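step: validate -> pass
step: tokenize input -> pass
step: predict -> running
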Amino acid sequence: MTGSTPAQRDQSCFLCQATGLGVLDSFQPENLLVASTEHSLVILNKFPYSSGHILVSPRRHLPHIEDLSAAESLDSMQMLQKSTRALKKAFHPDGFNVGINLGQIAGAGVPGHLHIHVVPRWNGDHNFMTVAGNTRVMPMLMEETWNKIRQCWDSGV
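step: predict -> pass
step: emit ->
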């Protein structure tokens, strides 16, 4: 895997930190890393909107979608496809919110490192606890979520 060189990483960025994980130790629940290729990575969102909320990201620290190479664009889309297949198999959602927040004003929590949100959704899943109580309610532990997604990923999505 070539991936990002240290010059293309921001060590304060959690996505860049994930690209620096060694191959043998990377796929552990505590790292949240689900999958990795030469150009992209799939990682659980540490602060999810719902169980199974993942991020698909290029390995390089890029803020703008137009900065992606053709290979990075294709690989990110292929990882997005695999992600939705794995999430469908693991959690049987009724749909997905898939999106990219470009720039801080658009809501990007990490404006310097482009990433795609993939959020499984179910009929009637709206929850006002986040807005009204500043609390997120998650029906599954992150480790369980990671295990389910990895099992589906490994079974050939």
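step: describe -> The chain has five helices and five strands.
step: cleanup -> pass
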